[in-house]
Write a structure and sequence with these properties.
single chain; mainly alpha; 0% strand; elongated; peptidase activity; transmembrane; RsiW-degrading membrane proteinase PrsW (M82 family); PrsW; membrane
Amino acid sequence: MSTPTLDARARALETTAWGEKFHFFQPRNIVFWMFLWLCGTGVVKGWQMFSPLSGYFGRALLIASVVGVVSALVWGWWFRFVDRYERQPISLVITAFVWGATAAAFAIAVTANTALGSLYGKLFGQVWAQDWHAGLSAPFVEETAKGVGIVVLLALAPRLVRTATDGLLLGAFIGLGFQTSEDLLYSVAGATEGFGAHQTDGLVESIATRIYSDIISHPLFTALFCAGVIYLIGTPAQPRRIARGLALIVVPVVVHGVWDSMLAIAGGTGLLVFVIMLGDAIFALTALWIAFVWAHPREAHFVRDVLAPEVESGVLTDDEVTAAAGWRQQRQYVKAGADRAERKTRRHIIRGALDLLSDLAISKGHDSDDVLQARAEITRLRSKTAPVHVLAES
């Protein structure tokens, strides 16, 4: 039986394509072959760079690789945790990561950065190029190389890359892939300094520096840039917002440029370097927070539409649906619990509501076994404590 809320749910699921699968193999899609070509080129170039070091510097290369994998797994887990609503298929996430680690890093960025560095040296002299090359090359070359990745994903999965949040999260994985490759490059470079006479010391120092700087690095830059691309292009789920799009594209370029140029800007003054670094980091994190604030209303609107019929049927309450649609709302809802036990139950109910959202997306709104089980779990959780509305009235 059709009702306004069920119709709204169907429209939301159709618009967002939540729950749909990603099929990587698309032989009739020219972008698929472009992806394979550029990523393959990146793998070959990366191999050409690292394979000559596998002998004498083999241990350093192995340690840097292990650290890089562990770091990527930790950051990847965090990004998946932040993906609050229906998560992107893992195959699409891996595709994003591979683009950043291979095509963007080795096929495009390494070549273009080297060419620009040579050009700057010829035009302005080697001293100037040494000071400003990184800040006036990497932000434009690398952000563009990574940003192309979200366009590639749009072409490979047009129904799955729909909202600014999709741009933020997939962009983070593109940036994570790039960061993993770059960290490996810098770590090995540290080990090879001084002809490898102190490769362990150089390796440890490089790894420590990269781990520290990765807090404000490519995942953040690319998340902002790719969200900006989504706003610029527009999708069925995200109306075009040109001003927002341009702002989110320009900000990471500026932040990246300042980050890479802080020594030159500060003129070697240690205190000024720290001030610039701190200010740049605060600005970048603030921009990321604003990007999520901008993206949240669209996502929250779709969450409410999908879960609205559950309110009508008594499975969830209005407050629970509101809490499921945002981190701040969830904290407020959980904090309002009368005691620790109820706050714990409320937290589990919200998690159950999000699981129900995921199951409804996969079943396209139908009552599948997983949907029925998710509803039963919410009912079981609610029975462990007094109903929320009774507590509110008492």
